[in-house]
């Protein structure tokens, strides 16, 4: 299945969210096959609150595959279960979410991974303030139970009662996390655009990164999810589109892959794909947009 990846521009680590079907180590092989130099993956079933323990032999095979193909843990971004709502006002859901966060971080440790990305949560019938407090509470609890792994909050589209659509909400959660060396942010381009951050015009990416730096701090930025948007600016709909085929357009993605402040972090596709324009083709397109540095 694996094929030799093309030489990538220095400091740009583009990849996609790949399947773990057939064994968690298969994610590594799948990433190589599509030309990825970074990847995201789920760490288990998305349908169950509790999952079988991670098989030790599978964890070893995963780490061996990463070493063989040159994947550094900082360019691998596990994604949390969509079942989790660490800000839920319902105590049973909050408790199960908190326990799942601990389990996910423990799996990361067993796999030799250094960071874990998840959707912060939704307030449901509570207030945003209480929701953000509970999210930080769950993170603090998980940090106490597990070593080293960085919890990476994803910005959201602002759909329904989800938290994280505004940079200020992410900052509020971070402010309540005790160990700030173990918290970060993944910026999703579709979510940001749908939440009202216009990255589409020339200079839009620079402007949004400047704003993120003012509100949150660029030192917290750990990853980017590369997704065009089916919905219009500020629509609050989480509807991903293929690169250059949506309302954001190709200009923003050209700026992203040439932005020095986004060097050395995983740039991960979560696009739907279409015949002839699946992950492999979109990764190739994004690398083709990287401008070669002129020699003096």
TrEMBL record:
UniProt signal peptide: none
GO biological process: base-excision repair
GO molecular function annotations of the record: DNA binding; DNA-(apurinic or apyrimidinic site) endonuclease activity; phosphoric diester hydrolase activity; zinc ion binding
A Pfam family: AP_endonuc_2
Keywords carried by this UniProt record: DNA damage, DNA repair, Hydrolase, Metal-binding, Zinc
Entries under InterPro entries matching the protein: AP_endonuc_2 (IPR001719), AP_endonuc_F2_Zn_BS (IPR018246), Xyl_isomerase-like_sf (IPR036237), Xyl_isomerase-like_TIM-brl (IPR013022)
Domain annotation Xylose isomerase-like TIM barrel: ranges: 32-288
Cofactor: Zn(2+)
GO cellular component: mitochondrion; nucleus
Matching PANTHER family: APURINIC-APYRIMIDINIC ENDONUCLEASE (PTHR21445:SF0), ENDONUCLEASE IV ENDODEOXYRIBONUCLEASE IV (PTHR21445)
Family listed: Belongs to the AP endonuclease 2 family.
Protein name stated in the entry: Probable endonuclease 4
Organism listed in the record: Sinocyclocheilus grahami (Dianchi golden-line fish)
């Amino acid at each position: 299945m694996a094929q030799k990846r093309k030489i990538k521009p220095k400091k740009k680590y583009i990849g996609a969210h790949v399947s773990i079907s057939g064994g968690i180590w298969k994610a590594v092989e799948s990433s190589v096959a599509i030309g990825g130099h970074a990847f995201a993956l789920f760490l288990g079933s998305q349908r169950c609150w509790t999952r079988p323990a991670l098989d030790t032999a599978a964890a070893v095979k995963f780490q061996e595959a990463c070493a063989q193909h040159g994947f550094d843990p900082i360019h691998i971004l596990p994604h949390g279960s969509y079942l989790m709502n660490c800000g839920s006002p319902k105590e049973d859901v909050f408790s199960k979410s908190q326990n799942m966060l601990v389990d996910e971080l423990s799996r990361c440790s067993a796999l030799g991974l250094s960071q874990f990305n998840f959707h912060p949560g939704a307030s449901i019938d509570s207030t945003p303030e209480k929701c953000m407090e509970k999210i930080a509470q769950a993170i603090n609890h998980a940090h106490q139970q597990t070593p080293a792994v960085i919890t990476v909050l994803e910005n959201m589209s602002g759909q329904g009662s989800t938290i994280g659509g505004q940079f200020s909400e992410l900052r509020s959660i971070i402010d309540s996390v005790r160990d700030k060396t173990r918290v970060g942010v993944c910026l999703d381009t579709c979510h940001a655009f749908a939440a009202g951050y216009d990255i589409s015009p020339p200079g839009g990416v620079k402007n949004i990164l400047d704003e993120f730096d003012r509100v949150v701090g660029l030192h917290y930025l750990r990853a980017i999810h590369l997704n065009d948007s089916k919905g219009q600016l500020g629509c609050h709909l989480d509807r991903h589109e293929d690169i250059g085929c949506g309302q954001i357009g190709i200009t923003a993605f050209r700026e992203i892959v040439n932005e020095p402040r986004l060097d050395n972090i995983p740039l991960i596709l979560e696009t739907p794909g279409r015949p002839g324009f699946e992950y492999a083709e979109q990764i190739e397109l994004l690398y083709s947009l990287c401008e070669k540095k002129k020699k003096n």
